[in-house]
Each structure stands twice: as C-alpha cells, then as structure tokens.
Sequence to fold (185 residues):
Amino acid sequence: MISPAYNIASTGLYLNNGLYPREPLYRMAAPVQAVAQSLADAGYDVTPIAAWPVSRMSGPAGPIRSYSDSAEICTTDFCSAALRRALRIERAGRAAGYAYISTRGHVGPLAIAPDADAKAVVTTALCCALESGPSRVSMIVPSWADAVMQAVLALGFRIEEPYVLVASRPFGNWNNYLPGAPGFM
Fold:
C-alpha cells in the first residue's frame, strides 16, 4: 500500500495491522516548459504494448515473474482505461524498460531493465509524455532510485507530495521501478 507520508492516522492503522513503512516515495512534478527545454532524445526506441487479453486474467493470479510480465498484466481494460499509452522502451532491439503514460502527463508505473541506462529510459518516457500536450509532467520516484532522482531533478522536477510504501515485509528492487499511483500495489 502507498499512503501519503503525512497521514499519521492511516500509517498508525497500517502499523497496528502488520504493515510497516518500507520505502519513501516522492511524487515529483515539473512544468512542461522546464522539462522540454532541458530534455534531449536518449536514442531509444518505443513500441506500444498491446492490451493483455481479459481471458488471460481469469483463474487464480500467480506471481509476476518479470518486469515484462507486469507490463502486460497492467494493460488490462482496467488499467488502460485511464492511460493514453503503454510503451516498451528498447535499445538496439533489446528491452530497456516499460512505461505507462497518462493523458495528463503522469509517467508510471515505469520499470527499468537491470542492465539498462536508467536516465535514458526515464528520458525516453518523458519525451513520450510531452507528446500528449500536458501542462506538467509527474512521476512517483522511490528514494532508492538515485539515477532517476538525479535525472528528474536536473530537468526541473520538484517534490510535490511525499508518500510511504507500507508492507508486511521488504520486497522489490526500488532502483528500477517507479509505481504508478498511491494505493494498493
């Protein structure tokens, strides 16, 4: 669960039910003009991700085994209704990551392959976000994602709202994954 960090009552409720703060997250945002003047093409290719067939969602859900599995699962009608695009980001035909971009300029979830250039993947996603003509762009950046944080700060992003990920146990590699929105994951 992702909750606003300043929501002490909710955090107390989660703590009493075995969910502990595991990861600070920050909703970062910037005006499009600031980002556009500093953004350079990273040289990565973008391919749309087709929607996951609803028939494949029936039955008991198993664990997501890889970042590409999670990309396909999130393109159900449930997820894609609020999204403009789901994208696979590639370099020389190899997957470097995936990103979901809303019509309002929010980037996320976004995943970066372990061997990919994080700054280039984020830059590519932001270039795509600018195409829909939003007034600002935003994303949720985990505190451990140093390369992403450095890249977006250099583009004029600033913290808009602090969040905290609460969970019953530690999990995930937060260097390579940016969640989409607060709430259940």
Summary: The chain has six helices and nine strands. The first strand starts at residue 2 and ends at 4. Residues 2-178 form a domain with the Aminopeptidase fold (CATH 3.40.630.30). Residues 54-78 have pLDDT under 50 and may be disordered.
